[in-house]
Design brief:
alpha+beta, Helix Hairpins, six-stranded antiparallel sheet, five-stranded mixed sheet, 14 helices, 52% helix
Length: 596
Amino acid sequence: MPITQKTAAALLLVFLALLLGALLILEQAVQPKFERLEAESHERNLARVTAALEAIRDDVRARTIDYAMWDDTYAFLGAGHPTYTADLTDDWFNEYGVDLVIFADSSGRVLWDRRHTIDGEAVSNPGLAAAVVAQARSAATRQSPLIGAANVPGTGVLLLAAAPATLSDGSGEPRGLVIIGRRLSRTLLEQQAQLQIDIIDAASARSELAPRMAALVQSDIQSWRTSDRLFGLFALRDLRGNVVAAILTEQPREISALGRQTTYVALGLFAAMSAVVIAVLGLMLRTEVIRRIQRMERHFHAQLADPQPIEPDELRNDEIERLAEAYNALVARLREASAREQAAQLQREAAAAANRMKSDFLANVSHELRTPLNAVIGYAELIKEELNEQGVTQTDEDLARIVNAARRLLILTNEILDLSKIEVGRLEIKLESFRVEEMLQRALNGVQVIAASQNVTLELIAQSDLGVAYSDEFRLRQCLINVLASACQFAAGGKVSLRASRTSAREGEQLRFEIRDTGPGLTPDQLLHVFEPFQRTDAATIGGASLGLSITRKLLRLLGGQIDVASAPGEGCTFVILAPALAEDLVPRTPDARAA
């Protein structure tokens, strides 16, 4: 994807991320505050309705107590004041805001009742009065005075108070009940609560209010909300405590709507500002960055074969300009490096040719030396046999020195020949199956003479199930002999142990050989050069040209293995050889398939 499209996509993603972040912040931080304000306002509104109802109840209660604890009322209920009710005129009803009055004697018989209809007509309904009295008498064990509500046809919902009639000082046996009621005025409640109010009958409530009405049995107030309205429902109970009506309050969710409107306006302003900022930023990126990078890209593609310096921009000193300067400096260094590489290539070719000549020379010399050395060894052993047959033994020690020196020189010659073959890629690897235990025994036999000459004790610790391996048995044995011989030289008068095991690794089955000696150990500097040819780790105590370990590392690489060493002064040396047990897929079959 071109950088222009990537930049545009990145700016768009940034814009969307900012917009989403702003929306989340507004929704999580701002809108909840409006929701809380709305909930608090709703609670205050419900409290106003409750206060208005309590004010009406208190007024009705006080009016009822006044008349119930009046001596005239007490006398009237005892048939001693026949003109008592003459004062309860329509003016009295209107003055005190009373819509229902009932007097009943102690037996529950209604002595006098009067109520005002919605139209203001004063009527008497002994049957209704008797029902109210019966309800009050059945609830007489409750608080006094009793407070309740009644839904009276033609009059509406009334708030009632019922109190027993006594003397003004509260003495005397109660002579019946005084019941006074006031009709609930929807208009008055709306004025006091500043809410839309509806007074509903419990028996004829709308179906959607049925669950809420049922919940009023347990709680006097129910409140809930919809997406756009807030509702409150207040229970109106009769004198027995049964819900007979309810007051429904309703108000629009103006505060939360204002919060949403504020959120949308703020989000729109933020989106507009972000769009302007991102547009300006995109224009600057295109002018100051993208176009200049595209110019450099075109230059780079045009100069792939032969890089040329790029002309710097005028009157600019920024990162892209410094990049162009760095590119020009790189071009200059590339030209210098190319010239040096060409010179180095010529030197490498000359060195490689010289190295091949050296290797060929060493191989030829080593090959020519082997014949006379074998002749020296053979003739020395033949002379020793002939002299021994003649009974002459005084020369045995001298002849043994000649044979040992010739053999050491022959070993060195073979090592030089192997090293030369490895360096020119002419050493042939011959794969074959062999038993690992037998190969180990032959390797130990090959160093018995060296171990005896150095007074070294050899120890073999082999795993019981080493089995059969498929590799170059001769070269692997040669590696073990080289390391064992080196260990014997290091541990003169000490001990050399060979531990062999077969393990499974991710690369396949591996043969692991650990050669540990009790010699003086190597210093860190000696460890760095222990595998280099013609480097003697301790010229004062150890002879030889140090070819065995170098050849061992190169041979193990050809076999797909490796060798490592760990040592410290005074702690001896530990060589670890790892070689694949089945080298068919790892080792080339042809002599020239792999170079050292």
